[in-house]
Fold this protein.
Amino acid sequence: MDQFHYVSYAQEVIFAPGSLARLREVVERFGLQRLMLCASHSMQVGGPVRSIESSLGESLVAVYDRVQPHVQDIQVEEVLALASEKKIDAVIGMGGGSPIGMAKAVGFQAHLPITAIPTTYAGSEMTPVYGITHTNENPPRKVTVSDPKIVPKLVLYDPELTLDLPPTLTASTGINALAHCIEALYSKTGNPISTAAAVDGVRHIHNALLNCYQHGEDLDARTEMLLGAHLSGLSLASVSMGLHHGLCHVLGGTANVPHGIANAIILPHAIRFNTDVTMTQLIPVAEVMGIPVNRINPMVINEALVQKIFHLIGQMNLPQRLRDADVKESDLPRLAQIAFENRTVQNNPKSITDVKQLEQLLKDAW
Ligand code: NAD
């Protein structure tokens, strides 16, 4: 790497089992007095919302606990209205990428500082980007908004919050983290920090993900997996993603496939599609995933990596075909066309000049 250009962000990151208990102390240090929490329903049922309510006491003036997947524009309007009515001075997103995306959308539009408390491995807490789904378009379409002001100022990682993450969400959001590392490594805008974070991220994800899937209560595995997710988010924060992520956004926003499931289905196909352009960049990933790399043709290494990831996804019983995620075969040409016009897809290191290339990939994944 002899040239690079990237932006880094000022964030305070706290990572420790039990760190949720420190939220009040940090909020006081930041001088925040009227906070709003965005979460999804499972956070209310599972108890973490109650922990925040008792920790923040009267400083928590609003809770919006019904964030739906893929950050829907109508919900953003609702939360902005609530923020204005309650005169909040900061917003907290706790949960997966959806509540954190909601907190980012609201914080950005209302000029409020954002805190993120992730409970999945999606990595949104580290990035200056959110996706928002325009629900009144036909078909609905997810677009991304990027701005340095979107980056959460405070990120609090408490692995104990992930102990109850169900196996399928553990697996699917874990594969999302792996995909961030992979696309960061072959990104057109890769840099030394994103590359170092991505390789180390894959190492931790490879060590811990299957263990977390099989033994969700294992705090050591959960801690290592959340570290992998942090590094994957860090790598993602300073680079542009490519084909894989663009396709996952289209499948999420337009075909309503859960983000992690779209990742699990698409990742092996995207790596294979890119092989001729990206194979040497993925050798360090293959190496940390235990694939022999010495004196072996990079193309062979790349295919072994595809197989290894496909196998891991199968071991965790995730859907491996689009048909298993309720995508209709007749929708593939339309999805390919939307993806062809997607900016992230067009940032792919291997250029995509014909919509038929995408249609073929989607057919292979169907
Ligand atoms: P999600 O936030 O939609 O959550 C999925 C489900 O997990 C929800 O039902 C939620 O209630 C449940 N859940 C979360 N944590 C839990 C826990 N600890 N225990 C039990 N249930 C729990 O899913 P996600 O995959 O985390 O995030 C996907 C969204 O994030 C997508 O919209 C995606 O585009 C976005 N995303 C954005 C970025 C970014 O950088 N902006 C990065 C990754 C993902």
Observations:
- The CA atoms of residues 207 and 224 lie 8 Å apart.
- The pocket of nicotinamide-adenine-dinucleotide is lined by residues 40, 42, 46, 69-71, 95-99, 101, 119-120, 122-124, 127, 129-131, 161-162, 164-166, 169, 173, 176, 236, 252, 259-260 (CB under 6 Å).
- The chain has a mean pLDDT of 96.
- Strands lie at 12-15, 35-38, 60-64, 90-95, 114-118, 129-134, 141-146, 154-157.
